[in-house]
Amino acid sequence: MGRPRKHDLDDLLDAAEALLAESGHGALTVRAVADAVGGSTGSLYHAFRSRNELLGQMWLRAARRFLAVQREAVDVCLQRSPTHEGAVEATIAAASSYELLRRQHPTSAQLLMEYRRDALLDDGLPDELAAQLRTLEGELVELMRRLAVALWGRADRYTVDAVAVCVVDLPPGLLNGWRPRVSDPLDSLAAAVRGVLATTPPNRKPA
Amino acid sequence: MGRPRKHDLDDLLDAAEALLAESGHGALTVRAVADAVGGSTGSLYHAFRSRNELLGQMWLRAARRFLAVQREAVDVCLQRSPTHEGAVEATIAAASSYELLRRQHPTSAQLLMEYRRDALLDDGLPDELAAQLRTLEGELVELMRRLAVALWGRADRYTVDAVAVCVVDLPPGLLNGWRPRVSDPLDSLAAAVRGVLATTPPNRKPA
DNA sequence: ACTGTTATAGAACGAATGATCGGCTACGCT
DNA sequence: AGCGTAGCCGATCATTCGTTCTATAACAGT
């Protein structure tokens, strides 16, 4: 019962992502999002409690999309070849999955690569949203632990740290396209990942 | 002639950097900078034509500091050992020089690692400032060309691109300390640089 | 047709922003 | 001593922000 929605919630998040991707952080205002979908600020505040929650939902959706793509890429690689080299390729695939996401959801990929969560979101998100973000973060850690086990047979904080470097720290700098590249950024990323994996953990060499 | 300055221009830039580093992009307002040095907004607008020029000067100073540190690190390495391995270590030193800068000017280093120039500065900077930024960028390219020559004997767009990956793209993600690290980030960086350099250029292997 | 519920529209509000302006102060020079 | 210049101060401007508010529109159930 009640009046039907004029705009899907996803449309609002799409508009917000598009504004962020095309015009930058400063252009992402409540009014701009409302105008972009042909709505009003009032109805936007009926869909989201605050601007911060809108940004939080936007981030959560992008992160979910990313994790789904990354999970599948890792699964395929690990299943195809359960050797150490297979695990290395799985880690490269995990790092490269930003590029896969970009094909499906370009603005989501750009969002995740260009902005850190803390820089975009303020504190004090609604409890449920904060809980979902924590859950998702836990799932990402779990995926990294699986990679660590596949690589070195154990998932302690050293090995997981090395995987995190490859999967979290490396990709944004290498795949975000602000600098004109002549060679394929994915090649650079793969080389960097191999370099990091080859030197960790300290007392173990790849077979 | 004229009244002497109450606050050095560098003090204003220091205050701006400190605000940016400690409280983030949103806290860097004209009033906040003026308050931080115990001055007024009016006198700040006497020192800088606009907020944008203040940010531009801040960026320029940080970039100059960075290039100076990086230049010296590269020179020392290249001079000590003119072999290919020496050049590799020089490239690692260039990439690691964010860490050196952090010791001398912590907020400058954080500024350069955390914020992209285009994301912080608006267009339409004063001509002289824009020219100085271009000049500095040219000097950075020149330094990268020197590294490319030391590494592979030539500085074409492929080799310079590879050096740029190591020196420009890799360090911010690996050295910016938002994620708690257990192993030394500099080790990860060195490993990543070695990985990238080992796979470029396509038809050349390290001696 | 009436009622209840939900969504929308858009004006309005207070706070904060970048920028401007006129009056004032402290110095060097003659 | 008096003047010109450069710098400082702080009230003030118009604008824009996130948010709130009230009235209205569109549905479902009876």
Supply the key terms.
homodimer, 207 residues, mainly alpha, elongated, DNA-binding
H and E string of chain A: HHHHHHHHHH
Number of helices of chain A: 10
Class based on secondary structure composition and strand pairing of chain A: mainly alpha
- Helical amount of chain A: over 70%
- Termini of chain A, distance in Å? 63 Å
Radius of gyration of chain A: 19 Å
Instruction: Give the largest interface.
Output: A-B, 34 and 34 residues
**Residue share in β-strands of chain A:** under 5%
The overall pLDDT average of chain A reads 95
Number of strands of chain A: 0
Low-confidence stretches of chain A: none
For the biggest sheet of chain A, the summary is:
none
Q: Which geometry of chain A do the CA atoms define?
A: elongated
In words, what does this structure look like?
Two copies of one chain form a homodimer. Chain A is mainly α and 207 residues long. Chain A has ten helices and no strands. The longest helix of chain A is centred in the first third of the chain and has 30 residues, at 51-80. Chain A is elongated, with a radius of gyration of 19 Å. The first copy, chain A, starts with 8 loop residues before the first helix and ends in a 9-residue tail after the last helix. The model of chain A has no long low-confidence stretch (mean pLDDT 95). The A-B interface holds A 24-25, 116, 118-119, 157-158, 161-162, 164-165, 168-174, 178-179, 181-183, 187-188, 191-196, 198-200 and B 24-25, 116, 118-119, 157-158, 161-162, 164-165, 168-174, 178-179, 181-183, 187-188, 191-196, 198-200. The structure holds a DNA duplex (30 and 30 nucleotides).
